[in-house]
Specification:
- Keywords: Signal.
- The protein is mainly beta.
- 12% of the residues lie in helices and 54% in strands.
- A hairpin with a 6-residue loop joins strand 7 and strand 8.
- The longest helix has 15 residues.
């Protein structure tokens, strides 16, 4: 059966919010590979079509990165620098605009987990 134009438009409208990456500030809650918990903020700024600059502030630590959105996930993938260490994070974009992700950094590796929640209600974001 061929979908009608109205059905196609409805499906596109329903799927849109999950794919919409929003610039702004996000609350960060995470857990390091060693089990330690942390909180902070992250800021997402668009740099082009599906590309983003991400800045995390957790305590006295500030990390900066660049990322891109894979719409088929949707998945936000970010490479970042914290001090003299490099890291990578991958976030699944949730329907409510939050980002659920995992990350690693430095030579020791290990996997941490993190959730970015849009400050003030809608959007989507990334990591420490």
């Amino acid at each position: 059966m061929r979908p009608t134009l109205a059905t196609a438009a409805l499906l596109a409208a329903l799927s849109g919010p999950a794919l919409a990456q929003q610039a702004g500030t996000y609350a960060v809650e995470g857990q390091g590979a060693d089990g330690s918990r942390y909180q902070g903020t992250a800021t997402l700024a668009s740099t082009g079509n599906n590309t983003w600059r991400v800045t995390w502030q957790v305590g006295g630590d500030r990390a900066q990165g660049v990322g891109f959105l894979i719409p088929e996930g949707p998945l936000l993938v970010v490479g970042y620098v914290l001090g003299n260490q490099i890291g990578a994070a991958a976030y699944a974009v949730q329907p409510d605009g939050s980002l659920r992700g995992t990350w690693t950094q430095g030579q020791g590796g290990g996997i941490g987990a993190e959730i970015l929640t849009p400050a003030g209600g809608g959007g989507a974001a990334p990591r420490k």
